[in-house]
Amino acid sequence: MIEKLFRKINPEDVRGNVFSMIGNDWMLITAGKRNHYNMMTASWGSAGVLWKKPVIFVFIRPQRYTYEFIEKQANFTVSFFNEEYRDLLNLCGTTSGRDLNKMNVEGLTAMETPSGAVAFEEAKLVMECRKIYYDDIEPDFFQIFDIEKVYPAEDYHRFYIGEILQMWEK
Ligand SMILES: Cc1cc2nc3c(=O)[nH]c(=O)nc-3n(C[C@H](O)[C@H](O)[C@H](O)COP(=O)(O)O)c2cc1C
Known about the structure:
The protein has four helices and ten strands. It has one domain: Pnp Oxidase, Chain A (Roll), CATH 2.30.110. Strand 7 and strand 8 form a beta hairpin. Helix content is 17%, strand content 39%. The chain is α+β, with helices and mostly antiparallel strands and 170 residues long. The strands form two sheets. Strands 1, 2, 3, 4, 5, 6, 9 and 10 form an eight-stranded antiparallel β-sheet that branches. Strands 7-8 form a two-stranded antiparallel sheet.
């Protein structure tokens, strides 16, 4: 299915500026399987190269419902959308899957990726990722002290490094 709507590209050929794509346009992180998945909006992270692999770093606070899914699964996806999907990204970024079954969100059509992860037909760019590393933000290691203000509840992000297995765009 994904091959019908998207064409595979190399990470080097992605169009757009990754700072703006992540920080301004936002991304939708999806974890789980076709019959049980959850997604959340994220605007902190980065994409680049590590261990000779194309990678994306995503940062997820432990209280997110998505955290439960990404912890259990070997793969996850990151989807990027056009501006017309801003309201849906806002919804997925302000409502927890614990309160709303996001599998039923109107306007987002789930599709399975080759590794059995889930992404969305409406996306303009999809990255299918394999979790290759994670770690937790360690406050003792902050070198500037204003970062601590981001964590009044001490809910330090866990970050996951995903190897980008495949990337598709429309
Ligand atoms: C623009 C935007 C960016 C966000 N970025 C992150 C992020 O990088 N990491 C994170 O843990 N939460 C982030 N959030 C918050 C989650 O998306 C939000 O708590 C969401 O409801 C979690 O859903 P879940 O509980 O179903 O996983 C962001 C929210 C918005 C609106």
